[in-house]
Amino acid sequence: FAAKDVLEPLVSGCHMLEGALPYEVCTRFPPEPSGYLHIGHAKAVLLNDYFARRYKGKLIVRFDDTNPSKEKEEYQQAIIEDLAKLEVVPDIVTYTSDYFEQIREYALDLVREGKAFMDDTPQEAMQAERMARQNSSRRDLSVEDNLKYFALMESGSAEGAKWCLRLKVNMQSVNGTMRDPVAFRQNTTPHHRSGDKYKAYPTYDLACPIVDSVEGVTHALRTTEYNDRDEQYAWVQNAVRLRRVRIHGFARMNFMYTELSKRKLTWFVENGHVTGWDDPRFPTVRGVVRRGINITALKRYILGQGASRNITLMQWSKFWAENKKEIDDKSPRFMAISEEGKATLTISNVPAPDANSFLTTDCHPKFPEMGKRLMKISNTVYTESSDLSGVQVGEEITLMRWGVVKITKADDATSMYEGEFAKDADPKLPKRKMTWLSESAQNIRAELFEFDNLINKEKLEEGEDFKDFINEDNLASMFAVCDANIKNLKKDDVIQIERRGLYRCDKVYGGKGEGKEIKLFMIPDGKTK
Ligand code: ATP
Ligand code: MG
Ligand code: MG
């Protein structure tokens, strides 16, 4: 068969994978279960999934659970749920912890072959030696001593905690990551899967190349800041005589005004700056979904960046603009008037309004196939006072979808106005066109929320502490009177409130009364930062 027969069409910007053969490609996404997935992880998993599908190969999702101090079952569960949200279906789910015994055996082989040694040099001194390219005084311990100290480390004793295993690579290397990296260290915290079976764990640098090779990964995709580690990764596979795996670098994704690191995101959660990992201000998968991203748009946006190797600082505006393209035409229109800023317009000649007077209007003016809805009509309507303020007696205004009203009385001070429908007037002509809502016992109350970034600096420089750049002014909310039709919205439904924007329903209407309002989150329109 020819490769082109099985390849899906290219997503713009996505490169080929070097040396990739159809049906044989195996990629992997290796999240550490130490936090929830963020938008950067989404890029990593979507790219891996994309290449696996494109070459009709396999995608492994591997929980990289080698550090029990940071990892939790809760995070693991959340990652599985978030992958489902991203519509990623792994072919295989594995755990680095399933390979602990195997990795340990490889580590002991390295010791026996003189390719690794035990070291109790204190951390700071070890760092200094690395900088000075100076061998550790323990580098030439005998195999017997190395095995003895390895056992001591594994015993979990305080004495053993001082020892770690280091790969005997090259302290003279210009590449710092080759200077005898740490491969195994003690940790007596119980592991969320293996419990207290092990008291020492392999580092990522040792575990990753071994497990990638053992699991049959053909292409390991890594962000380009790992480039320096490629040499070390290959060294490990050679040293343990495992099949070499190709590395394919891709650009880390960063966003302006945003921190993307689990450690920092955890800080926001623990210090109450957000309501949880699914906070709509958060760059987590859950956060952006709650803020109103559509998964199709998210995928298109991320795959559109492709596997390019240039590190990019993304703008949220482009992300949300992509979203708007996807959802705008699918979102029914509603009207709502702000409670605080509402004006009252009394219209003298509404034909015989009663409790059952309605206007039939399209849910979406451009797409009549989306259906119709009824809008209550009466003599008294609410509009935004900002729309009517300054209006002159005699001026004609347009109530959208209803008609043209000629103002007969105007009082900006009380926001009370009077008028009458102008027969046969062209609703396109008046300068002032406004949304409106009839006074009605059926109107319901909504709370509208708008969110902003958590960080007030576009890009933090090296050495700057994100805690010094917290944007405290990141939330605005208001109450609005809404069309009774809004009552039927379900959680996650997306609507447009005319002349305000797109909103996602975060909490459904609970009835009359304080606290039972429907909660709607404004979806950024891509026009602001
Ligand atoms: P964080 O810095 O947020 O803790 P991490 O790299 O330590 O991220 P992992 O769970 O180890 O978290 O990451 C899983 C995969 O996601 C890795 O392959 C990593 O390269 C990738 N990844 C993490 N952050 C980004 C990002 N901002 N852009 C692209 N890929 C990322
Ligand atoms: Mg990591
Ligand atoms: Mg990281």
UniProtKB/TrEMBL annotation:
Principal location class: cytoplasm
Protein's cellular compartments: Cytoplasm
Keywords: Aminoacyl-tRNA synthetase, ATP-binding, Cytoplasm, Ligase, Nucleotide-binding, Protein biosynthesis, RNA-binding
UniProt signal peptide: none
Catalytic activity: tRNA(Glu) + L-glutamate + ATP = L-glutamyl-tRNA(Glu) + AMP + diphosphate
Enzyme Commission number: 6.1.1.17
Family from the record: Belongs to the class-I aminoacyl-tRNA synthetase family. Glutamate--tRNA ligase type 2 subfamily.
Stated name of the protein: glutamate--tRNA ligase
Organism encoding this protein: Tetraparma gracilis
